[in-house]
């Protein structure tokens, strides 16, 4: 029987604006036992849902759209606006008119053009008083009436590539019919509620069915029909084995393991991303090598021997800390590994039923991933060896 002290003390989310989603397994690096608790419950709830059990956690498909936009009716004036995440800045960039977009985003013509499409068409589907956030997927089919479209028709399919993934659907599918009519396509995933932009809180279980229907706007609902997902007994067994191993690692870790690794949180996450790109497994020794490589780059940037010596001394201190706390670092990496492997099982199962085909550089792949929302706290479930690695590499090209 599992007996975790943290089951009743899981931290309540304090996220009020959606700026960044964390990988499930990274919670343990960020927040120790509370992070492990949240990751564990996210994964266990998703597992239970796929087995037909109900709980309050929700799962949606994560789409690889670009840009991420915020739109709706200003809570104080009622005027319709569009923008990026910068609408929540201390000095917000809110666009009510095309002229506002030129002033706030004219330095990025491609973004400005897409925001103008959004400003023109999204009022057609947005109920009064609502504010949403979502990803732009396309801005229509290329035609005489819509020359700036970005949907390609090829091999009896419609294709669009808003970011890393190319999405495809047969020309006679339900989604294809909506795309052909539309001027813009969007995936809404978050709703904001409040009396002003500054006090608005994000609700990650957005009820997208409240959006109106209009042929000019292709709304891609991110909800998943769990009953159509194939979750085999073999996958369930593998998931349970990894979650059990993660639990064993947690139970055997020292209660202060996170205090030992906390000064290295950001460096550790950077190192883990590096292993994703290199398709290697994170290790304590590998992390020390990463720190050394980083220090060498820092030393190359400074000219004086005194400055170089200071960088070297910092590295020595970091290495000494890792050596003194090697078991704590190893415990965290063990938890991270098994949580990640358990998550990957779920991602593979969830990917068996999707609205679109997915390709990266012509190679068939899974969706970007999924988002599990528990206690109004979103966590991304992404196969880092698949999408994340491809995304990292595409940025380097």
Q: Explain this structure to me?
A:
With 397 residues, the chain is an alpha+beta fold. Helix content is 42%, strand content 18%. Strands 3, 4, 5, 9, 10 and 11 form a six-stranded mixed sheet that branches. The protein has a five-stranded antiparallel sheet with strand order 6-7-8-12-13. A four-stranded mixed sheet has the order 1-15-14-2. Strand 12 and strand 13 (363-365) form a beta hairpin. Helix 2 packs antiparallel against helix 3. It is globular, with a radius of gyration of 23 Å. The model is unreliable at 1-9 and 11-16 (pLDDT under 50).
Return the string of H and E elements. Answer: EHEEEHHEEEEHEEEHHHHHHEEEEH
Provide a count of the helices: 11
Structural class: alpha+beta
Shape: globular
Average pLDDT for all residues: 91
List the topology elements.
Blueprint: E1 22-23, H1 27-50, E2 58-62, E3 68-73, E4 80-83, H2 98-105, H3 109-121, E5 131-138, E6 152-154, E7 157-160, E8 166-170, H4 174-181, E9 184-193, E10 201-203, E11 217-219, H5 233-252, H6 257-261, H7 265-278, H8 284-301, H9 305-324, H10 326-350, E12 357-360, E13 363-365, E14 369-374, E15 377-381, H11 384-396
Parallel strand pairs: 1-15, 9-11
Antiparallel strand pairs: 2-14, 3-4, 3-5, 5-9, 6-7, 7-8, 8-12, 9-10, 12-13, 14-15
Helix pairs in contact: 1-5, 1-10, 2-3, 5-10, 7-8, 7-11, 8-9
Provide a short characterization of the protein structure:
This protein is an alpha+beta fold and 397 residues long. It contains eleven helices and 15 strands. Strands 3, 4, 5, 9, 10 and 11 form a six-stranded mixed beta sheet that branches.
């Amino acid at each position: 029987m599992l007996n975790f002290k943290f089951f009743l003390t899981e931290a309540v989310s304090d996220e009020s604006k959606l700026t960044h989603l964390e990988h499930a397994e990274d919670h343990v690096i960020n927040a120790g036992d509370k992070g492990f608790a949240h990751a564990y419950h996210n994964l266990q709830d998703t597992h239970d849902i796929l087995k037909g059990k109900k709980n309050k956690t929700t799962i949606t498909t994560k789409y690889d759209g670009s840009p991420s936009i915020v739109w709706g009716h200003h809570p104080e004036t009622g005027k319709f606006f569009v923008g990026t995440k910068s609408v929540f800045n201390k000095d917000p960039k809110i666009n009510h008119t095309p002229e506002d977009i030129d002033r706030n985003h004219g330095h990025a013509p491609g973004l400005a053009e897409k925001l103008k499409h959004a400003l023109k068409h999204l009022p057609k589907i947005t109920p009064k008083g609502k504010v949403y956030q979502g990803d732009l997927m396309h801005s229509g089919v290329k035609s005489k009436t819509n020359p700036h479209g970005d949907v390609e028709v090829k091999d009896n399919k419609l294709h669009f590539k808003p970011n890393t993934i190319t999405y495809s659907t047969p020309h006679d599918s339900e989604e294809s019919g909506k795309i052909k009519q539309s001027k813009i396509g969007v995936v809404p995933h978050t709703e904001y509620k409040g009396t002003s932009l500054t006090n608005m809180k994000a609700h990650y279980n957005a009820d997208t069915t409240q959006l109106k229907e209009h042929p000019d706007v292709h709304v891609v609902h991110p909800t998943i029909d769990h009953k159509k997902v194939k979750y085999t007994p073999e996958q369930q067994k593998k998931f349970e084995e990894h979650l059990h191993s993660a639990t064993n690692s947690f139970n055997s870790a020292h209660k202060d393991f996170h205090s030992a690794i906390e000064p290295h949180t950001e460096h550790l996450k950077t190192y883990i991303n590096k292993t994703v790109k290199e398709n290697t497994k994170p290790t304590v020794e590998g992390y020390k090598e990463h720190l050394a490589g980083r220090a060498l780059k820092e030393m190359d940037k400074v000219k004086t021997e005194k400055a170089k010596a200071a960088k070297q001394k910092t590295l020595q201190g970091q290495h000494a800390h890792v050596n003194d706390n090697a078991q704590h670092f190893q415990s965290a990496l063990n938890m991270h590994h098994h949580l990640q492997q358990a998550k990957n099982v779920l991602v593979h199962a969830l990917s068996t039923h999707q609205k679109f085909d997915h390709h990266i550089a012509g190679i068939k792949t899974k969706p970007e991933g999924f988002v599990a929302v528990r206690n109004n706290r979103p966590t991304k479930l992404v196969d880092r060896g698949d999408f994340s690695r491809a995304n990292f590499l595409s940025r380097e090209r």
